[in-house]
Structures are given as structure tokens and as C-alpha cells.
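[09:14] KT: can someone run the structure on this one? pasting the chain below
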Amino acid sequence: MDTHETRRTRDVRVAPRTIFLLVAVAVGAVLLLGLTFAVRAILVQLVVAIVLAMALEPLVSALERRGLRRGAATGVTFALVVMLLIAVVYTVARPLADETSRLVHNSPQLLDQLSHGRGRFGFLEQRFSIVERMQSAVDSGKFSTTGGAAWSVIRSGLHSGGQMVFVLFLTLFVQLGGRQWYDSLVDLVPTQGKRRVRRTGEGIAEAVGGYVVGNLAISAIAGTVAAAVLFATGVPYPLPLGLIVAILDLIPLVGATLATVLVAAVALTSNGWITAAIVVAALVVYQQIENNVLQQIVYHRTVKLSPLAIALSVAAGAQLAGVVGALLAIPFAAALKVVARELIAWRRGDDAPAETSITETAERRRPLGLRVQPARRSPETPA
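[09:31] RB: done, C-alpha cells below
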């Protein structure tokens, strides 16, 4: 018998309902992507607020353990954060305003010295004829848009300040209702998966919150070291410059370098080459200690990511969302690792990820840098 005759052809029919569902899912996905792109700025601010809320959760929990209700503990924490921000802004803005006022008051004398090639910046006139070039630019009308540029800078500053205030209050709202929202989402999960989902959320909160708190501690150390070095070398305004160093140090990879360049420029213009070289050398030495010791402790205790994964995460975050993306890249990568670990355990049929053991749990409860060595069993001791 011919084998071709024994073959049976099967007709493949697709129900109209299946086609309709496929088209509906595709259209819904496109609309969702479009909506996400349209509100991407708000989503980024929401993510920042969630990360900040995770970082503040240990303080809120500590106040709750002392007898305060959730709302009162959140209010006290919010007030402390606002007071800290006001103190930082005042500390940085006051010397800036003083120097600006002094510059305006001394501008006639400085211009006279500059036009005659004298003073600290007299070399600009001697070598580059800067006064003549500026006068020529003014006469040609190239500076006619200076007022518009200044207004653009002021408007950008006001917009950034408004965004910061919005993120701050959004963090407050997330802190107040985040736990209820999380519990409501967990209740939507089937009973057999609630334990895994809750463990995933707690792992993400622990990794993100621990990273943020650790990074803030490292930045505070960087600012303290910078302020001490500037105070010892006689550079003016050591405390405001130390705060600026601490803020810039929060930016991964490039923040410490930017802070060093800024502080070196101030030291160079105020105290000369020798002081600037001493300041740069001290900050570079500290950066090596921070990169090879402090960051390794924080990253190993919280995100548990390799240096290559951290570098790729920061580069991708900076490419997608600039400075904010670079700041959120490492916590986001840590969250993805927690989710991926739980998914792998679920696919294998394990109740918990392999890395979640008694030894690791004990290590997490110990201070940074302390490790728990597993007990050695003798050959005759059964496993």
C-alpha cells in the first residue's frame, strides 16, 4: 500500500473568537505602550517615590515599634526629611548668595583689573584679549539673547524644584498607603502563590531599601572626608562643598569624579596649585577606598550583583533616563534578580530559592561585613 494513501490531512481552522482576541490583545498592548510613553515622566517620579519610601521604611517601622501609629510615624519621618532638605539647601545656598553679592559689589574693580591685565585673571586679557572680544560680541548683538537664556535657566530651576516637591509628597502618600496596596495585590494572587509573591516583595524591599540606605551612608562618609580635607587645607566653605560632594557621590561611576573636579576648581582659584593638588590626592585616595571597600560591602550585602552587572545596569539606566536612570539602575537590577530567582525556583518546583538558606538569613541579620561560616561536620556525622 502506498504510504501517501495512508496519510490523513487535517484541516486547521481558527475560530473567529480566537482572531478577535488576538487582535484585541495586540491593540491593547499598543495602547498600553503608548500610554506608558505618554506618562513616562510621572512613572519615573512614582518609581523614585517608591524607592525613597522603601529607604525610609526602617525608620517608620522603628517609630511604630515605639508605640506610634502608622500615620504618626510617617508624619514624623516626613518632617525629619523636610527639615534635613531645608538645612542642606540653606547650607549650600547661603555661601553661594554671599559670593554672588560680593562679586556684584566688586565687579567694577575686577573689570578694571581685568582690562589692564592685572589681578588673578589678568592673564586672560594678556593672552586672549578677553575684554576686546567681549566688547566686540556685545557690539555685534551676540549677547542679545542673554535675558532669554537667563529666564530659561530660572524656569528650568523652578520646574526641577516643583518636581522635587511632587516626588516628596508622592513619597509621603506611598509611605502612608503602600502597605495596604501591597496587601491588596497579594490577596489577588491564588492561595498557593501568596507565600512566594510575598517573599518576592519582601526581598525586593530589602534589596532596594538596603542599597539606598547604604549608598546614602557612603555619600555621607564621602562628604565628611571632603569637608575635613578642605577644612585642614584652608579651602573656603568646607561644609557646603562637603555637602555638594555627598550629593554628587550618589551618582554611580561619574559622581565622585565630578565632585573632585568641582572641589579642585574651588581650591585652585582660592588657594593655588599646591592646595588643589593636596585636595585632589586626598579625594582620589578616598575614592579608591570607597570603590574597593565600602561599595563592595554595601553591594554584597544588599544587591548581590557582580561589578559587570552593576556597570551595565548603570550604563543602560543613564542611556534611558539620564541621571535618574543611573541612580535607579542598581536597585532595579537588584529587584529583577530577586524576581528571576523566585521564577527559577517556581519552574523547578522548589518552595524557596536555593540561595535562601538559614546561613544567608543569619548573615542578613548581622552588621555589614560580618559573615557566618558554616559549621564543619566530621566524616562520621550524618548529613
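[09:33] KT: thanks! The CA atoms of residues 58 and 209 lie 8 Å apart.
[09:34] RB: yep, looked fine to me
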